[in-house]
Every structure is written in structure tokens, then in C-alpha cells.
Amino acid sequence: MAAPATTLKGQPLDKPLLERMLRRRMFYTPSFEIYGGVAGLYDYGPPGCSLQANIIDQWRKHFILEEDMLEVDCTVLTPHDVLKTSGHVDKFADWMCKDPKNGEIMRADHYVEAILEARLQGDKEARGKKVEDKEEDPKKKKKKAKSEAVKLDDAVVQEYEEVLARIDNYDGPALGELIKKYDLKNPATGMLPSDPAAFNLMFQTSIGPNSNLPGYMRPETAQGQFLNFAKLLDFNQSGMPFASASIGKSYRNEISPRAGLLRVREFLMAEIEHFVDPQGGKKHHRFQEIENVELVLLDRDTQLSGKTDTRKITVGQAVKEKLIDNETLGYFLARIHLFLEKIGIDLSKLRFRQHMANEMAHYACDCWDAEMLTTSGWVECVGCADRSAYDLSVHAKKTGAPLVVREQLAEPQIIEEWQVRIEKKKFGPVFKKDAKNVEDALEATSQEQREKLAKELGEAGKISLDVAGIANGKAEISKDVLAFEFVKRSVNTREYTPNVIEPSFGIGRILYSLIEHNFWTRGVDGGDEARGVLSFPPTIAPIKVLIVPISSKDEFKPLLKGLSQKLRGLGISSRVDDSSASIGKRYSRNDELGTPLGITIDFQTVQDGSLTLRDRDSMSQVRADETRILEAIRSLVDGSKTWADIESELPKFEGQELDVAAR
Amino acid sequence: MAAPATTLKGQPLDKPLLERMLRRRMFYTPSFEIYGGVAGLYDYGPPGCSLQANIIDQWRKHFILEEDMLEVDCTVLTPHDVLKTSGHVDKFADWMCKDPKNGEIMRADHYVEAILEARLQGDKEARGKKVEDKEEDPKKKKKKAKSEAVKLDDAVVQEYEEVLARIDNYDGPALGELIKKYDLKNPATGMLPSDPAAFNLMFQTSIGPNSNLPGYMRPETAQGQFLNFAKLLDFNQSGMPFASASIGKSYRNEISPRAGLLRVREFLMAEIEHFVDPQGGKKHHRFQEIENVELVLLDRDTQLSGKTDTRKITVGQAVKEKLIDNETLGYFLARIHLFLEKIGIDLSKLRFRQHMANEMAHYACDCWDAEMLTTSGWVECVGCADRSAYDLSVHAKKTGAPLVVREQLAEPQIIEEWQVRIEKKKFGPVFKKDAKNVEDALEATSQEQREKLAKELGEAGKISLDVAGIANGKAEISKDVLAFEFVKRSVNTREYTPNVIEPSFGIGRILYSLIEHNFWTRGVDGGDEARGVLSFPPTIAPIKVLIVPISSKDEFKPLLKGLSQKLRGLGISSRVDDSSASIGKRYSRNDELGTPLGITIDFQTVQDGSLTLRDRDSMSQVRADETRILEAIRSLVDGSKTWADIESELPKFEGQELDVAAR
């Protein structure tokens, strides 16, 4: 069970208070609200937008610039054939069922889960047990069905619990059987819902005026990167391994999106596709730089045993123990951890959870999620999947494009193998229309089979072979038209399809978790609502500096303008608040926006040009001339110094209480 | 007629050479090429992607940061009702016709134009006139119909020319009539095409599992900004004027997209919506900062008189002469000009063209386009429209949301007016079910009508009023239930719907024009192909520094790594090229990528740590220690210094010819 969510300072997190604040400061807002809104669509207002841009900026520096990744920007519009090949047309679906009375459409797995859990809850109440506050898992978020205190047979309780433990294992028909077997009526209508039907999560459209080219809005940015693999390899002068990266919107037509940024229909992703040679254990040449990074891991086996105990372990040790499969996967998990730390995620609310076999996407062979603890429980924010050679292979097979690496071997490799030799001129006339099928069947034989068949052909002068698609399914082939030869040959190049390690970031989920992790409240003396603060690191904060004049006199105006211009010249965003509110109120408004620094312009500034600089979190202040204050701001914003550094360098200022109203 | 396109150095622009180079260096590439591609969709490779990111970064600084604009990020998915209200569902369409034989779909206006022009061309040939190389207008780009030398009557020539001059004026039915009247058969099939049908340019989809919420992919980012107007005004603490801004993808299902980035179906836009009080002449408080900026203008009247003569004039003078309608519009035209100059657009290939009345979008009341001269003629890259109060008004009317500004008046305003007084208790029983209609009709009367009706009521004791929706359409109302009173009242607030000035940037078109404007070729001695160079300003260039070791010896490796890391620390992108190609070849590869600076690491570097820095354009070099070289790079990349500055500060280096192969 997850601990109840807390603020940055360990206070119980008052979610309604936070939500009011986010709305008031326009971090994000339901799209098309004046038209009644559309579920799962949100717009970012100025602070949210800036926060998003700063996260992306740090992401680009941390990943793309640091590792010379090849960034690409591919289209959202994607023709049907591409997503058919990738498996999304057939497999990127959820099961939904419909209530015949009120027409409500529900995710079938969530529906079964909610009702069984409500019955178990009711059983506990009837047995007089204390009802636990169940951990909410946002991946399985559902409307909680209301429980009635009805006692169940012990055997039934056990059966329900077993079903719930395996809920991700059932497909649509199986969920439909459960609904009938346990008579899972919709509490809202008293009706059984329809049989579950597959609902593809992609938005469909058609491209061009003919309406004859069906297409989709991409569900991930990855496919565009895979399709460009050969060009990217060429751009990289054939060097391996290398990574491509892409930042862009993706779309999923969720059956039931929830309020907030955690399950939406349009979202910004940042994805890396790291292409690596599958041979040689997927080593990474910079692994030693991160091997001592400690991660909190929740592995597959622990989960299968029904537990959620995590383990804090260095990446080096985890790879050694094969807990994490290989160096490249470990390298990226550590790099993800370092990125999240840098932007201000609370590390005590971060874990890496390994996917269980049955919950992985159709293309993945291993996957770890970076999950963050929020008021909605543990939320998956970054996935790090090993997609193996799946995508490159299926696209190459479909299109014939060589999505492979050709590697010059240091020394030629000697290959010994059985080869099939067909006497084409005679072979055709013997098998006529079946010739192609028979030839294919011969070519498909393995080395072991060929060795056996060679012996048979030598001894009997003919062989009998299973051939699909011809009359009676068997062909008899004589040594007149066929031979097997054992050949030794020398190979200078090696051709392989790279494997792909894919770190995939949901920027909206990270942004929301970041808000919760940096939120806390400052006590107030009076009866007012606790005052919210967002303690974003200066690099990430939407606005860096609030400029507050202590008076609205004309002599302050040129000072404000000059200071704004200088900050702008440094590329630092600032806001002037020359409203008539008290200085305290003005600062508190900007605490809510997460503005880390404040400059007060007072009467002494007019005299000697000195400025006070205030730290949002400690509310302590320093005072110095403009040059030194600007230098301090620059070093705080680029992350090279902390407030403690600045406090030790510049004179402390305590001459004036901030909460005094403007003179 | 446009002059033929030239390179940055005035050479004739060899477009096939440029295109080969852009493809080789993966600036952009057709999307889904291994699946055969989709017309109008392109992916950006690493240099294109970086170029795009740098343009956006400069845009954010130049507009959003400089002017404290409120950036928002709204969804692409947009429900039907919003775009119905905005007029896009009904009016955002082109007329298309279809060839009944080969099924080809063509834009009707382009079709008529192409065939008439071919006939006029044929006439000239038949008359033995020299055939001019007609200017290509990419807005009207079409397949050129092949001309046959057939002489036309003088009257027919005049008629065709008049039709062509007004081609933007015809709607679908009129274009259909022209096709029949002039028997405009498709040269490819000899058939008359179908009657033109309206084809809406928006991509349609449906949102949610019910398929009952039709939606579109937005055709512009503007609507999301308008819908958030009230929240943004509130965020801005009710201050006016202010601007919102948005950077994001938009979509138009073009009937016939062309090769290249100039007419595509998915594109990145950067749009500003500047909200301004329509009263007081739309002044701008920073106008004096830009009033001396000189613009090249092609105004509406000049175009209507059939000419394309431009005029170079300061913004101040143009506004004074009312050539540009108001200060705010002029301010943004100047700011657009300055932005384009900053990113490296060739100002001799830039003009601002005013829209003619018949070519404006349905929402615009005035519009100027920043057009750039390219190998495809003059290309519209930035639009700057005055959308008046159109959008806010229609959305407010449809939803009832108050998309208005309420302004406290400095002194109360006295209003004298006739008011309607209804004796509710008696009025209802008299008119029964018609009461609401009669009341509405009374409330809808104008001040003039009320004055007349008051007189009539006073004299006759009753009035007769036209009322829609009631039996016989007239109501007789007596003074028992009705009175008109002349009232004087004092008003403290003014309510108005702001006007919108909208600068709207097509980033892909700007990016492509920027490439052409910065392209030139360096002569070579041998018979090789001329070597392409892209002279992007350092702030905009995709990669800033190429690092070239003169030898592949091991002692160079730590130097390369250290230097890369230091540049990364400064946020400057670099590439190491330690391939075995000659130094000259390696630099020439990076000239094609537009990399402005090169560092050579040679044997002296190993001894004393000094480095040479090379300028892409002049190929001259300086040499200094690492600290000074890094400082020079930083100042060049942030735009604070030019190469001439660096050359005057650091010792010139001529010790080594670059085109000598690596030792």
C-alpha cells in the first residue's frame, strides 16, 4: 500500500487546495471549457507552458546534447500500412463494454475489477473488519463501485481474489465470461453490460482529397524513428551504437480519461531509440560513469510473489546480479534517474518497477518504468523498454528496405554449412506448378535436416519432403534434380538487425508529479488559507525573478524598466508586479507560481542603486549593487550556485520586513 | 516578374545541386519513404531539426520574452462546434474538380488558370512573340499545361486576360461555368472535369469511444488562444493590451501538395494574438522604438493597378500615410522584419505584401504577408492579419461566455436613453403564451423607435408592434401594461470586445527560405561539383563547432573528449570528425551542414594546448589557448561578437593549409 501523499515538507498534501491554486495561476486548464470541455484534453497556461519548455530544454541538454543523439521530427499523421505492420492496428486496443440502459461505455477490466473489489469490501464490512484505504493505482483507475455489507462464502472470497490478482491476464472474451459467471450487474442501472469489444486507441482520419488513404494520429513517436533508421545510420557515418531522439505530441483515444494530466488523449512525449548490436551483451561504453548511481528497484519476481518491497541498489550491482538485464538498459535507467533528480523530482518518491510478462506492450521484451508517488498513487512517468529487433524487423520484412547494419569484420569468418543445389532445368518440368512450393520447402530446411536429407538422398537416391500447399502435402525428390553440398566459405562482413533500447518520457505526467513533489504550504498567523509554495529549482521555474517596487512613484519606473531589460538580455524571464497589493501579497502570489527569486526596489535603490534579492524558500534576503545581484541571479538560474553560496558571498539584508504593506 | 533566384553570393542558384546536398545531409526527407511516402508529409533529420529548434528559440526570445507575451499550449484535437463557430467548417475549403477518366483531382482555380495561360502562351508563339518566363507564384502553383501554337482572336485574348486577373474572385460554380464556357478540357485525357465541389481542408476524426463527438485537427493555433481569452486576461491581472502566443503543429489536407517544404499537410506554426482596444486608433506604446525601421512594401492599390512595384519606407512614415493602418500593425510588421533579419534572412529578398480584399481569410479585415524570394518565386512565410473582433465575438455569441474587457472609466459617463417599462403582473395575463415574444420585440426596439412609440402611446393610449412568431404578426399593447421612460444614468465601466492583431509564422517555409538565402557554392580547381556552403548565422546554425584532429593517434583522444565536454558545458553543440578523410574534405562536409566554426587539433596542441579556430565563410583562422578560443566561440554563438571582432583580437594563423590531406 502506498503511503498517503505528502508535500515537499512532509505535510499531508491537501489536493483540493493545490488544485485551486493551479487553476488560479493557470498552470493548466480544461480545453474548450467555454464549450463544455472535452474529456482528456487540457491546455497549458503561461506557467505550465514555461515549465514544460524548461523541462524539455533540460531534457535536450541532458540527453541529446550530452550524448550526441540524432534528433528527428517526424509527422504525427501516419498512413495505415505503417501502423498495421507495427502491430498497432491489431493490438493497440482496450476492451470496452457498454451498459444497454444508459449507454455508458466502460473499460471491461476496470469494470470487473471495480465490482469484485466492492463485493470483497462489502464482505469485510459484514465480517466487521476494518476496511483499508486501498492504494489507488492510476493505471487501473476506475470509478469505485459502492460496497454493500454482504458476507461472502470463504471460497468465493478466494476466487475473487485470484481473479483480481490476474486481472491483466484476461482478454475480452474472458472478461465477458467473468461478467456473466459472477453476474456483474452495473450498480448504476442494474443491467449486465454488453460483451466486451476491442476498441482501438488510435484516432483515425483520411489523408488527401480522395479519402482513399486511411491514416492515424501516431500513438508514439517511435515509428518515425524506426522508418528513418537507414538514413540515420548513414548520417552517423555508419557508426554504431547510436541513438535517435524525438520530442512531439502523440495521441491515444482513451475510453475513459480522468480529470487531470495523468491520463489524457493528447500528450507530449520525448522518446529515445538507442540502436545497439545484440551481440556482445549490450555493453555501454560510458557505463562506468554511472555504475555507482543508486536506484530504488521493484523487480518482476517480487511483484509475482505479491509484494511491493523495493530494494536500493547501485546500477553496477544490479547489472552484475542480472536484476537489470544488461549495461545499456542499466545505463539509461541511471541517466533517467539523474535527469529526474536534476529537474527536481523528490527521490524519496521515485522507484523503478519492472513490467510483468503479461503487462508488456506487444513489441517489448523487457521494460522498467520510472514511477512517481503522487496523490494518485504510483504513476508511470518514464518507460524504458527493450524492444529487441521487433520494429526494424517487421518494417524491413514488409517493405524490403534493408534496416540492418553491415559491419566489416576485423578478420574474415569461416562458415561451414549445408547448401541446397537444385538442377533448375529439370526441376521445373518435374514439379510444374508445384515447383515454387517445393523449392521454398527445401530452402526452409535447417542445417540439421539437410544433413539428414543428404544422407537419405545418398542412400535411397531420393527423399520425401513435407511441402505445404501441394496435393497430398508431400513431394518425392530424386537425386537427378537435387543435391546437398557441404560448403566452406569466408565471410568479410556481418549483417545484423540492431536491438532497440527505448527510454520514453511522458512529459505531462512528469510535469504534474514535479508540481506535487515541489508543493508545500507556509503557515499563516490569521485564519487565512495556508499559503501554497512551489519550490521548483531555478533552472525549471516558469519565471525566474519577480521585481517588486515598494512604491508606485514615477522615480521607480526607469529602474523597473532598466532591470527588466538587463534580465532579458541575460535570457532570464522576469515579471514586474507594481500592483497596489502589499509586498507580502505580491510575493505570496509568486510563491504560488514557483518564482524562486525576488528583487525589491526601495527608496535606497533610488539613492544608491543597490537591490535586495529574496529567496523564495527561506524568505531570507541579501543586498548588493546591481552587477553583483545580476551575477548572483545568473549563477542561480544556470544551476552553478545555490542560495547558500549566494548568502555566504553577499551581505545579508534584514532591514525590512516583507509582510509590511507597501508604503 | 521575379528575378531568377540567386545564392547568397549572387550566383545563379543551382536548385538540383542544393536539393542533392540537403538530402545527403538529411535536413529533411519524405516521411514514410520506405512505404512509398505520403504527399505533403516530411520528416526533419538532425540538422533540420536543430535548425528548427534554433529558429523557435530565437522566436521565443525575440517575441515572447521581449514582450512578456503569455505563451499557451493548446490541443490540436478540436471539437466540431468550435470550428463551426469560427467559420472553418463552412469556409475553410478549396474548390476541386475531378477528371472523369483518370480520376485525377485538381484545384479548380489552378486548373482554369493553367489552361488559359497555356492558350495565351500558344497565341504568343503563333504570333511569333518571345515567350516570357512567367513568374511562378507558389500560392497559385500548378502543373503547367503544355501550350500549342494556336492564334486566338484579339477579343478572346483580352477576355482570357481579364479572367486571369480576377481568378481569385470566382467561386466554385463560377469556375465550373468558365470550364464549360471555354471548353477547358484536361489535356491529359481530353475530358471536361466534373463541376467544382467544395473540399474542406481540415482533417476529420472522432473523439471518444462513442464516435459521437466529431472533431478536427486544428488548421491554426489561434482558436485555442481565443477560447482562453478570459482566463488569460485574468492571469494578466486585467491589464490591456496584451498578447498570447503559441508554438505548435497545425494541419491542412491540401488537395495537391507540392514537393518540398512550401506546401505541406502538417506544419509547425508560431502564432501571436495581440489583443488591443479598438478605440483610440490602436496605438502601440513601444512604436517609437521601431518607427525608423525601413520596410519594403507592396500595397493593395499598386497590385490592383496590375503592378508589383515595391516601396522602401520607414514604418513611421507608412503609418503616417495610412499605408499601414495603425501603429500596432506597423509595430508588428517591423518586429517581424527585425526577427527575420536576426535569423539570417536576406533582406534584399524580403517584401511585405498587402492582401487584396478578395484574397483575405474569412476572419480578416486587413492582412500583410512577409514574402521571401526563392526558386519558387515569392513565398508567403509570415502573415500579419487584423482579425478585428471577429473570433471573440462569434465564440462569445455562441457560448454566452463574456469574452470582453471591462474597463473602469476614469470619470463616470452620463448616458441618456429611452427604457422600456413593462407592468409584468398585467402583461402576462394579457398576452399569455405570446408574452415572451412581445417582450423580446419591445426590448429589441431602437432608441429612435422608442422615442416614436412613446409619442404614439402617449397620444393613442396604445401602440401596434410587429412581433415575429405570434398569430397575425402584430400585437396591440396598451398603456396599462407598458410605458417608455427617458432616463439619465451614470456609467462607471466600459465593456468592449478587443480587436486582434495576429502575426502568424510558418516555421517550415521560413526554414526553407533561410536555407536558400544562405546557400552559395565555393569554386573548386578540379572537375568536381561546386562545393555547397550554408552560411547560417552562428546563433541559428544546427551544429556550432566541428572538431577535427589532424591525426588519429591515441594522444589526441583525451584532447577531443575534453574539448567536447567543455563545449557541452557551455551549451554549445559540437561534432568530432576523426574519420580518415582529408581535413579539407571534413571541413567541406561541415560547410554543407552550415557549421560556422572549426577547431583543428594538431601536434602543437598536444605540446602547448593551443588551438586553431576556423571561420566557415572566410576560411581564415586564428590561434590561441583553449580559454580564449572557448570565449571567442561563446561570444560568436550568442551573437555578441562577429568573426571580424575575433580576428582583431586573436593572432591570425596561417601556418597550415587546410586542404592538405591529414598527415
From TrEMBL, chains A, B:
Residues 151-549 form the Aminoacyl-transfer RNA synthetases class-II family profile domain. Gene3D superfamilies: 3.30.40.230, 3.30.720.200, Anticodon-binding domain (3.40.50.800), Bira Bifunctional Protein, Domain 2 (3.30.930.10). GO terms for biological process: mitochondrial glycyl-tRNA aminoacylation. It comes from the Eukaryota. Its EC number is 6.1.1.14. InterPro entries: aa-tRNA-synth_II, aa-tRNA-synth_II/BPL/LPL, Anticodon-bd, Anticodon-bd_dom_sf, Gly-tRNA_synthase/POLG2, GlyRS-like_core, tRNA-synt_gly. Its main location: cytoplasm. It is found in: Cytoplasm. Pfam families: HGTP_anticodon. Residues 124-139 have a biased composition (Basic and acidic residues). It catalyses: 2 ATP + H(+) = P(1),P(4)-bis(5'-adenosyl) tetraphosphate + diphosphate. Residues 124-147 are annotated as: Disordered. GO terms for cellular component: mitochondrion. One of its GO terms (molecular function) is ATP binding. Keywords: Aminoacyl-tRNA synthetase, ATP-binding, Cytoplasm, Ligase, Nucleotide-binding, Protein biosynthesis, Transferase. Catalyzes the ATP-dependent ligation of glycine to the 3'-end of its cognate tRNA, via the formation of an aminoacyl-adenylate intermediate (Gly-AMP). Also produces diadenosine tetraphosphate (Ap4A), a universal pleiotropic signaling molecule needed for cell regulation pathways, by direct condensation of 2 ATPs. Thereby, may play a special role in Ap4A homeostasis. Belongs to the class-II aminoacyl-tRNA synthetase family. Homodimer. This is glycine--tRNA ligase. It comes from Stachybotrys chlorohalonatus (strain IBT 40285).
